Amino acid sequence: MQSSPQSFEQSMLRRTQICPRWLPGSDAVFWYRRQVDSDKFRFVLVNCTQGNRIAAFNHEGLARELEKHTQQRIEPLKLPFWWINIDEDANWVRFQYDGKTWQYTEGAKLVEWSGPFDQGNFDLGCEEAASPWSREQSITTLTNQTAEKVEYYWISNDGFPQLYGAVQPGESKTVDSWIGHKWRLEDPISAKKVVCELKHRRGVAMVEEIPNGLTLSWDTDDKAEEVVSMMQKDGSSACDELFIKDYNVWARTFNGAEKQLTYDGVEDNGYKDVWLSPRGNHAVAFQCKPPASSPAFFVKSCPSDQFQPGLIKEQYPRPGDRVEYQRLRLFDLAKDQEVSVDDGLFQNAFALTHVGWSDDSQKYRFIFNERGHQRLRLLEVRTDGSVSTIIEEKSTTFIDYYQKLYYKLLHSTRELLWASEQDGWNHLYLFSLDDGTLINQVTKGPWVMRSVEHIDLENRQIWFAGLGMVPEQDPYYAHLACVAFDGSDLRIVTIGDGTHTWKWGPNRRFIIDSWSRVDCLPQTSVREARTGKEAVFLQSESIDAILEQQWTRPERFVAVGRDGTTNIYGIIIRPKNLDESQKYPVVEYIYAGPQRFNAPKAFKDLSNFRRIADQGFVVVCADGKGTNWRSKAFHDLCYKNLKDAGFLDRMAWICSAAESRPWMDLSRVGCYGGSTGGQNAAAAVIHHSDFYKAAVAFSGTHDNRLGQLLWNEMFMGYPIDASYEASSNIAHAPKLGGALMLVAGELDNNVDPVATMRLADALIKAGKDFDMFYVPGGSHYVDSMPFVQRKRDAFFRRHLQ
């Protein structure tokens, strides 16, 4: 066992990772490697139907036998292989070593094996190349099953990798992308990487580590895709294939001849998508005028390939800029003519999203998201050009399009599953696909349907991830649940007072359920997917007596916010050598981005918090109103009001915590954050300097008019109005009343560093003192640089201690 709290948390994350290797043809037996120390492993065999978890083989006996054959020292828990073939009764195990395949039997006999050896089915990815042009959305959840942080990069249409974020061990992040696009997943420490091509509309990509790199395993629920396949074409089909060439739509006939269908496509108004009906007699194409050119310029002051600075130009659409205009065109291929389409129901579009043709080729369906994100429609175009609404969503604030949009067309039953917040919580609804009539609400209650996991069409059941389903638990805790299409028979499958992650077994018969809290180490079981009954308990972690005295458990704390009724949830990290007779300054890690919640829920590596706490600070982290994944009303506070950032809830929560913790000194409170958190941190000492005395703002969006179009218009609205000015730190710079340190990376193409520079300019003009650190070559994630962290810590020591 490692001795320090930081290495303890890291080692626990490694030990708790279970990558099940299901035996070929079995949905009940698997093996996995159980880490018992930093470089020691034990192979475990699990039989879910028998309820057994045993050693896969005699590790000591195998090591001794292998020593005899190789004349080398072999340690039982450092065996020189990581992959095995095994009999489900553990009568034999096979492995590869030194260019040979070996078999070890229960009788402690080791012999060479000349038969077949299954080396597993690993997705080693694809070549890194430019992402192709695509308009079909792909929503992929990246789950990190390695022991280290994994960064994910989008490979742009020009072939350049762009860092989008990082996934910590055991955690997941959702990526909104497009079918065919390529993403690089990379361990920044070992440089191991894998490049994947997205091939599914929805799926989970689990990132695993193998000796020679990273690999992927996918969970895509293909059985529920219900993609309309092309029917067998007969003589009535007008063409075999449609494609885009020279900005226009072309047809390829059955004899291979090519024919141009459109002639008005040009570079700045070309066709980009075309969708042929199943019977091949009609097609829909999107003719697109590009968005406004809105470049951002970044000066690379210290390039590695030259002494002179370099200039980088990237397109950076900002709120209010012209978005791409998509014109829907309908063609009757049999008559070789265009059919006029009434576009009255999809004017002023932010985006038109392809859904697909009906199986009878009579209707084409798509989603219309009106600019401003207050109106969303599922529309269908008939082959005569008429358009009708199947489902319409309206909001006086915003529709959480990029986080909560979910739909599933069930062609075989003429039904549609649709997610909506119409009753104040995100839930599933079942509609008739024929006329949009509501059949019934599927999920209901003061909790949130987070995502759909699996649809069993035959038995009409849905498995989904829900947040806040268990009363008295933290409302952000995730559980797996199952419900019938008609809303009956709601069952929570996972059990345990914490947030859960799970892996499905073959045929979705079993799940491997792991749960934890920030103050509770992970526990893992195999459960029956239909009932939640525990089949096998796999493992739990414990703390030795010595480390128990050194590791400071994070404290979960809940208190009411500004309204005196709504609970606010967060955590508190104390200094490791806390003296309760002393007073300690408080530092809040803040991120009030409305797309998610921020406070940790699962057991994780909190070394970033501990480094600050162990310098004599109390570190806190909570989620106020305006953040995501609670009720719609809780979320809506952010609308046109990002300067609020839940501060009144945060301050009430911190004050409540201090009532029972007199060692928290509320006369010395600071905060720090990056990106939107940087905007929030600066706002703290601008608008609430009576409470927050010091703040460090990394890569801040200090005026939402300078940020990226999509994110900022989602929460601040369109068209641009006075609310943007009201939420601008730049506009309110003269109000600065606390110590402020601004940090930005010169190459940040996520939040343009010009926002930080403009705030600095406004502060100078207002005669305000502040610190500033501009990082040469720095990206959006400058706050992860050790040098920058030292600057942050020194700033807090100077102003709060």
UniProtKB/TrEMBL annotation:
GO terms for biological process: proteolysis. Keywords: Aminopeptidase, Glycoprotein, Hydrolase, Protease, Serine protease. It catalyses: Release of an N-terminal dipeptide, Xaa-Yaa-|-Zaa-, from a polypeptide, preferentially when Yaa is Pro, provided Zaa is neither Pro nor hydroxyproline. Belongs to the peptidase S9B family. It comes from the Eukaryota. Residues 242-519 form the Dipeptidylpeptidase IV N-terminal domain. Its EC number is 3.4.14.5. This is Probable dipeptidyl-aminopeptidase B. It comes from Sarocladium strictum. PANTHER family: BLR1971 PROTEIN (PTHR11731:SF118), PROTEASE FAMILY S9B,C DIPEPTIDYL-PEPTIDASE IV-RELATED (PTHR11731). The keyword Zinc-finger does not apply. The keyword Protease applies. Residues 608-800 form the Peptidase S9 prolyl oligopeptidase catalytic domain. One of its GO terms (molecular function) is serine-type peptidase activity. Residues 132-193 form the von Hippel-Lindau disease tumour suppressor beta domain.
